[in-house]
């Protein structure tokens, strides 16, 4: 194959801080000219794959492009040009109501690459999944990590397969009918390889949990906002992904009348019209704020959907009995009833964990339940436990099936976390690979101190820097062959298939009703002519509802207008209305 030919390429970078910027291109240095807005530009002949970067003032260090499309030699090295491509045409699909499957490329398979993940896509189609949601793949320092410490927001992590690998993954997913959602982080930058402050005022003096806050409303913020919106457009247009999961939007400090999220929603609408396919922006937020998904013409930001931790907490505590930390207010059947029929539990109510009133009530005439993502597991709810242990480590298969039934029977858009559908026993731990000794040490000490405050001895908290912590987090696909795991997997498939029933197609919280005896024995959810009854106790219980069983974990006994459900089990009945 002949080497790529030279072609004129336009290089531009926003750098209002330095007095001089020069382009470094494959060892040659080129002058650049600035405009009044701080943009430096030049045109130079370059080949595909050419290494380039910028020299600021008299510093001889070549810095990577803030908008670098590729960092083949790591986040501290020069950037590289990639070819312009047009993603294969596909019609897209609607997010709301589809089953979402969250996965981490590095641990989804033993190889930890996009190409290896492609081989598992037919399995997800058979399971009934509609979208894969991929944890962050933007460039970060080290070989493996969760991806939330990225510094190359436009680049694709090389160990996963780089830009070409992501292209192949998205194309393969679309070919089998799966949409692709990509997790992106715009609320902070990672601690290693962040050179943006050398170029311009990308960050403020303030800080959130993970680092300095991004400058969204101070001097120079217009270009920072443009940087973020261009990054969103980059993934949606250049790689053809179908939506973005916006990490921790509550950490976006933005005071202007028009919030960045409103601009992002407007951008998604424009791009959807341009590309001719649905696009979805999904917020992760702990604010319980319906404005995120309220339409712009109704005074909201207009995002497509948001994660709903209240549903997770209510189901998990009801089934597991855990009550520590932020679970303290959850666990009762009344709490579960509230979230399944109203969406949020904390909706202008007191949160004991926060020590204040939290959240706002959802107006069911304005927000549909399918705009809320519900789940029994996520990377957060598993990985942020001290040992990264999944519910399958401490709950029976029947209780796991109950949790799945409550989510998949709900009116919300359901999301699974990789492996939960067969009750994977492999943990998903917090793992890092910081090459800098001081950063590695700080990460280990910080993790240990965090959980020591909650009573965990240091030796029981896995070392995030230990390669064994990462290795243990890989899925073991052979588990599915074990009868116990295979049974749970069959139940997940049946519950997902049941979502095609017309009774579950009504997208209105007002169409969901619940019954329970006021204590932790049985709980019933009614949607149309279908009723889900769950029994979280050990002995059988009898609920005052009859009908024809259409799906079950263990065989119930139906006698007239009552159904006896075995212990730690569920049944779905079709009732005569």
Automatic annotation (TrEMBL):
<dbReference type="InterPro" id="IPR012768">
    <property type="entry name" value="Trehalose_TreZ"/>
</dbReference>
<keyword id="KW-0963">Cytoplasm</keyword>
<comment type="similarity">
    <text>Belongs to the glycosyl hydrolase 13 family.</text>
</comment>
<dbReference type="Pfam" id="PF11941">
    <property type="entry name" value="DUF3459"/>
</dbReference>
<feature type="domain" description="Glycosyl hydrolase family 13 catalytic">
    <location>
        <begin position="102"/>
        <end position="447"/>
    </location>
</feature>
<comment type="pathway">
    <text>Glycan biosynthesis; trehalose biosynthesis.</text>
</comment>
<feature type="binding site">
    <location>
        <begin position="379"/>
        <end position="384"/>
    </location>
    <ligand>
        <name>substrate</name>
    </ligand>
</feature>
<dbReference type="GO" id="GO:0005992">
    <property type="term" value="P:trehalose biosynthetic process"/>
</dbReference>
<dbReference type="InterPro" id="IPR017853">
    <property type="entry name" value="GH"/>
</dbReference>
<keyword id="KW-0119">Carbohydrate metabolism</keyword>
<dbReference type="GO" id="GO:0005737">
    <property type="term" value="C:cytoplasm"/>
</dbReference>
<dbReference type="Pfam" id="PF00128">
    <property type="entry name" value="Alpha-amylase"/>
</dbReference>
<feature type="binding site">
    <location>
        <begin position="309"/>
        <end position="313"/>
    </location>
    <ligand>
        <name>substrate</name>
    </ligand>
</feature>
<dbReference type="InterPro" id="IPR022567">
    <property type="entry name" value="DUF3459"/>
</dbReference>
<feature type="active site" description="Proton donor">
    <location>
        <position position="284"/>
    </location>
</feature>
<feature type="active site" description="Nucleophile">
    <location>
        <position position="247"/>
    </location>
</feature>
<dbReference type="InterPro" id="IPR013783">
    <property type="entry name" value="Ig-like_fold"/>
</dbReference>
<keyword id="KW-0378">Hydrolase</keyword>
<feature type="binding site">
    <location>
        <begin position="245"/>
        <end position="250"/>
    </location>
    <ligand>
        <name>substrate</name>
    </ligand>
</feature>
<dbReference type="InterPro" id="IPR006047">
    <property type="entry name" value="GH13_cat_dom"/>
</dbReference>
<dbReference type="GO" id="GO:0033942">
    <property type="term" value="F:4-alpha-D-(1-&gt;4)-alpha-D-glucanotrehalose trehalohydrolase activity"/>
</dbReference>
<dbReference type="InterPro" id="IPR014756">
    <property type="entry name" value="Ig_E-set"/>
</dbReference>
<protein>
    <recommendedName>
        <fullName>Malto-oligosyltrehalose trehalohydrolase</fullName>
        <ecNumber>3.2.1.141</ecNumber>
    </recommendedName>
</protein>
<feature type="site" description="Transition state stabilizer">
    <location>
        <position position="380"/>
    </location>
</feature>
<dbReference type="InterPro" id="IPR044901">
    <property type="entry name" value="Trehalose_TreZ_E-set_sf"/>
</dbReference>
<keyword id="KW-0326">Glycosidase</keyword>
